[in-house]
C-alpha cells in the first residue's frame, strides 16, 4: 500500500498515483469494439510508489505502463510498475530513499545511486520495434518489458552498442522499418552535443554519430524526413555551473539564440550537418515532417518560450500555450532560415500523424486540446486537416471534470487511405476517479465513441503511449 503522500499538485487529483497493479481479462464495454482493431494500446507515465524526497516534480515519478489488449471485440487491461533499479531498491527498503531529480538529496547511504543508475525512471513513452517493447525516459537507456504481461526485463542496450540514452520520441520509418533516435548531452552531463543512432528493421544498431551543439541544451523531440534528420536546439540550456551553486540546472536563455541541425539521412555526420538559424521559440513535440525539392516542412506545437522551466535568474515565467505551427526550411538557399507560421488558432499538444505517412508528405494529424480558447485541462481530441488548416473536434466532457491524454491513431488496414481508422484515447472522469479507453472513428469524431472500455481504476496523468499491432 502506498504511504501517505505530501501535499503537491502532481500528487493530487488526476495526477495522484495509484497504489495497485490490476489484471482484467475482459473490461465492460459500452458500444462495439471494431472487429478489425486488434492489438495492444499502451500508456506510460509517472506513478511514484513511495512518498518522494524533496519537492516532487511530475518528471520524477516511477514509471508505470498500462496496456489495453484488444482482440475480437474484447478489451483486457493490466498495469505494472516498471521495475527499475530505483523502484526495486525502494521496494526493498520500504520507503523513498532516492531523489532522482537531485542526487545530493538521497538518503544517507545512497548518495552515489543517481550518479551510477543505468535504468532511470522509465516513465515517459514507449516504442514497439523489431519485436521488442521498450519503455523510454530521455535521460537513460530504454527499458525492455514483456509486451503482453508488462513484466520488467531490464535495460536494453542493443547488445552493448548503445552507450547513450534514448529520446522518448524515436521515429520508425514506415517504408524501411528503420528506427532513428538521438540522445542529448550524449557524452556526459551538461555536454554540448547529441548523438543520432540508427537501428535497422531487424533491431541491429547500425550507426551512431555525435554532433556538437552551440551550447548544452535539453532536446525533447526531433523530426525525420525522407532525406534529413532535423534536430532543433532551443535555448533551454543546461549548466553545471548553475547546478553546482544550487541554481536551476536547466533554464530558458533566449539571448543565446536557437539553431536547427539538418543532417543528411544517408551518410550524415558532424561534418556535413548544416545549421539553420531560427527565432528562439520552443517545441516539445512535432506532428511530422517531410521534404520536397529541398524544402523541409515541419509541423509542431510551438510555444513562445519553454514552459515549466525558469529563466537563468531562476524566475518562473507565466504559463504559455502551444499552437500547431508549420515551419518551412529552404535548404536550396545559401543561408536558410526557419520560417514559422501558426496554422491553428486553438492551443494543442501531443500531435500525432498516421504512422504510415510519417516522414513523407501528409494531410492529416491528430492532437489533444482544451476546449475553449484558454490553456487548461485537455478534454478534447482534434483531427487536423493540413490541406486547409481546418479541424474537427470532439469534447469528452466538461473541462473541470474530464481529462484526456495523447491520442494514438491506428489505421483500419495496412492499405486504408490516410487517416482512415481509429483513434484511441484514455479519458479520466474525476468525480468517479476512474478512466476509460475511448475508441473513436478517426473520420467521424463528432459521432462520439464507437466503444468505451471502462476501468474501475484511474490512469494518472501520463505522457505518451503507443500501439503494437496484433501478430507483429
Ligand atoms: Fe514527449
Automatic annotation (TrEMBL):
Pfam families, per the entry: RPE65 (PF03055)
Keywords: Iron, Metal-binding, Oxidoreductase
Top-level taxon in the UniProt lineage: Bacteria
Claim: Metal-binding is one of the keywords in the record: yes
Listed cofactors: Fe(2+)
Cross-referenced InterPro entries: Carotenoid_Oase (IPR004294)
Family label: Belongs to the carotenoid oxygenase family.
Name by which UniProt lists this protein: Carotenoid oxygenase family protein
Organism listed in the record: Candidatus Litorirhabdus singularis
Amino acid at each position: 500500500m502506498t504511504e501517505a503522500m505530501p501535499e503537491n499538485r502532481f500528487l493530487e487529483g488526476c495526477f495522484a498515483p495509484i497504489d495497485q497493479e490490476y489484471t482484467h481479462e475482459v473490461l465492460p464495454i459500452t458500444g462495439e469494439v471494431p472487429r478489425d482493431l486488434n492489438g495492444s494500446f499502451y500508456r506510460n507515465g509517472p506513478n511514484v510508489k513511495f512518498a518522494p524526497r524533496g519537492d516532487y516534480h511530475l518528471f520524477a515519478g516511477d514509471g508505470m505502463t498500462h496496456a489495453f489488449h484488444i482482440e475480437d471485440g474484447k478489451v483486457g487491461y493490466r498495469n505494472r510498475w516498471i521495475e527499475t533499479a530505483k523502484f526495486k531498491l525502494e521496494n526493498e527498503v520500504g520507503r523513498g530513499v532516492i531523489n532522482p531529480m537531485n542526487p545530493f538529496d538521497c538518503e544517507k547511504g545512497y548518495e552515489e545511486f543517481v550518479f551510477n543508475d543505468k535504468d532511470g525512471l522509465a516513465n515517459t513513452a514507449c516504442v514497439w520495434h523489431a519485436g521488442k517493447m521498450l519503455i523510454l525516459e530521455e535521460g537513460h537507456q530504454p527499458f525492455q518489458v514483456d509486451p503482453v504481461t508488462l513484466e520488467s526485463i531490464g535495460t536494453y542496450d542493443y547488445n552493448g552498442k548503445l552507450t547513450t540514452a534514448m529520446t522518448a520520441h524515436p521515429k520508425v520509418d514506415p517504408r524501411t522499418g528503420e528506427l532513428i533516435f538521438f540522445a542529448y548531452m550524449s557524452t556526459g552531463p551538461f555536454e554540448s552535443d547529441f548523438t543520432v543512432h540508427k537501428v535497422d528493421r531487424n533491431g541491429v544498431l547500425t550507426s551512431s554519430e555525435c554532433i556538437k551543439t552551440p551550447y548544452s541544451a535539453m532536446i525533447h523531440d526531433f523530426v525525420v524526413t525522407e532525406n534529413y534528420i532535423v534536430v532543433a536546439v532551443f535555448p533551454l540550456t543546461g549548466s553545471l555551473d548553475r547546478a553546482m551553486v544550487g541554481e536551476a540546472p536547466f533554464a530558458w536563455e533566449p539571448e543565446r539564440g536557437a539553431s536547427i541541425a539538418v543532417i543528411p539521412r544517408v551518410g550524415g555526420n558532424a561534418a556535413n550537418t548544416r545549421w539553420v538559424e531560427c527565432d528562439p521559440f520552443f517545441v516539445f513535440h512535432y506532428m511530422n515532417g517531410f521534404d520536397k525539392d529541398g524544402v523541409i516542412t515541419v509541423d509542431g506545437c510551438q510555444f513562445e518560450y519553454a514552459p515549466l522551466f525558469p529563466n537563468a535568474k531562476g524566475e518562473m515565467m507565466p504559463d504559455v500555450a502551444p499552437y500547431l505551427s508549420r515551419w518551412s526550411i529552404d535548404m536550396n538557399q545559401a543561408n536558410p532560415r526557419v520560417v514559422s507560421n501558426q496554422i491553428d488558432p486553438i492551443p494543442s499538444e501531443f500531435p500525432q500523424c498516421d504512422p504510415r505517412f510519417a516522414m513523407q508528405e501528409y494531410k492529416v494529424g491528430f492532437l489533444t486540446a482544451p476546449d475553449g480558447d484558454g490553456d487548461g485541462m485537455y478534454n478534447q481530441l482534434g483531427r487536423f486537416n493540413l490541406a486547409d488548416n481546418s479541424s474537427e473536434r470532439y469534447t469528452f466532457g466538461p473541462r473541470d471534470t474530464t481529462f484526456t491524454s495523447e491520442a494514438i491513431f491506428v489505421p483500419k488496414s495496412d492499405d486504408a487511405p490516410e487517416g482512415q481508422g481509429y483513434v484511441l484515447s484514455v479519458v479520466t472522469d474525476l468525480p468517479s476517479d476512474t478512466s476509460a479507453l475511448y475508441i473513436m472513428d478517426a473520420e467521424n469524431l463528432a459521432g462520439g465513441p464507437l466503444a468505451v472500455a471502462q476501468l474501475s481504476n484511474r490512469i494518472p496523468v501520463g505522457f505518451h503511449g503507443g500501439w503494437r499491432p496484433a501478430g507483429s
